[in-house]
What does this fold into?
Amino acid sequence: MDKICVFCGVKPVKKNKEHVLPQWLLKMTGDPNRKVTFGFNYNSGKQIEFNWQSFTAPSCTDCNERYAKFEGKVKVIVEKLQNREEITGTEALLLLDWLDKVRIGLWINYYYLENNKSQINPRLCIDNRIGKKDRFLQIHFLESKTNSSGLNAFGVETFVFQFNPSCFALRINNVLLFNGSNDFLISKNCGFPYPDKIVSKENGTLELSDWRYDRKKYLEIDNLPLFKGVLTLMQPIQTEMQYESNYYNDSYLVLNCLDRDKRIGNLFRVYNSDIISIDKIEDKLEYESVTGKEITILWQMIAKVYYAQNVFLKRVETNNEIFAKAIKVNEKTIDFYESKNKNFA
Ligand SMILES: [Zn+2]
It folds into this structure.
């Protein structure tokens, strides 16, 4: 396998190593020299463990330095979350960028670690995937009587994730970040134009058709009912959409875009019964209270990640039988967590 720079996607110049999970995050969640665990092997029921020192991906020295300042800013935001301090819309956007970075970084990590088990052609790198597609984030504060420290990434070890790194969850001590991004994933929810039909073509590109634009909002992402978090955000990003010159000056889209030229939508906030565009991006986002039956336990949340990956892969019509197999494997993992859930309850 030819190694590529995790950031720019070409052969690394002055090769360096990027810790996909940054050192500040490892320090924040325990001994940075510890082994880190990433999900369960559903066959053995054991956690998958790595020594974090070996959890690196190749990068150019310059690319690595380019992102150092960004990491510094995100650290402050993650510290706020740890203290349950409110963050602003602008900070939420940075956090979404960072989750794009971590998600794709982990995807590339697993590509190397498991010797490309899915036999894919890596076409993603961090530079070309930050803030390029629709995305969502749900923040959960985990209820724990003890102060539990630790770091886990859920869903990143699956076959489905290798085919389509659409969704994962990151647990940072008592905070869980449930994050996803994919083509037109939440455009429909936010009243933006969306294709009703997505077909995967043999060359790896997607064919989008049956466009709809009704300016309505929808609470559910496809067939994925969400749990309640303290904060649920969506951002439609249609940068790669070439079709819609008809809609370019549409008043709803002009009003609801941070950057209409680049087709970057506003940040939207999801409530129980409504989705609201956030107009004042510098304002703090108040956390919702999650109580009683609304509280989700960790196992349910993890099962939701695998479930969401399946839902998102099924959005795409394909003749590829491997996708169906990958979906089955995830279904087994969901069963595993649900049985664990029963034992837990
Ligand atoms: Zn590079």
